[in-house]
Amino acid sequence: MLVCHCHQVNDRKIRDAAAAGARSCDEVGAACGAGTGCGGCRPAIEGLLSDGGEHEGGGSLPVVRAPEPGV
């Protein structure tokens, strides 16, 4: 599932970054770029980092939308 729309990063890439040692949104961003654009996906990234694989295999993540321009 696409998590970071700004950089086209899916949940698998984020999980791979976590498996390689990323433990924060900033570390995930350094590894794959997710969360370094508008920041709207950072809550979903944090959820992926803290869920212990709960969403693996078809679970759902909360829908997080980027803020509207000018807001």
Largest sheet: 2 strands, antiparallel
Side by side, the strands of the main sheet go 1-2
Number of strands: 2
Instruction: Assess the beta-strand content as a share of residues.
Output: 5-15%
Note the overall shape. Answer: globular
- SSE order in H/E notation? EEHHH
Helix content: 25-40%
End-to-end separation in angstroms reads 26 Å
Number of helical elements: 3
Structural class, by secondary structure, is mainly alpha
Rg over C-alpha atoms, rounded to the nearest angstrom: 11 Å
Overall pLDDT = 84
Q: Unreliable runs, pLDDT <50, ≥5 residues?
A: 53-61
Key features of this structure:
71 residues, mainly alpha, two-stranded antiparallel ribbon, 3 helices, 37% helix, globular
Structure at a glance:
This protein has 3 helices and 2 strands; from the N terminus they run ββααα.
Please give a structural write-up:
The protein is mostly helical. 37% of the residues lie in helices and 7% in strands. The chain has 3 helices and 2 strands. Strands 1-2 form a two-stranded antiparallel ribbon. β1 and β2 form a beta hairpin. α1 packs across α2. The longest helix is centred in the N-terminal third of the chain and has 9 residues. It is globular, with a radius of gyration of 11 Å. The relative contact order is 0.21. About 13% of the residues have low confidence.
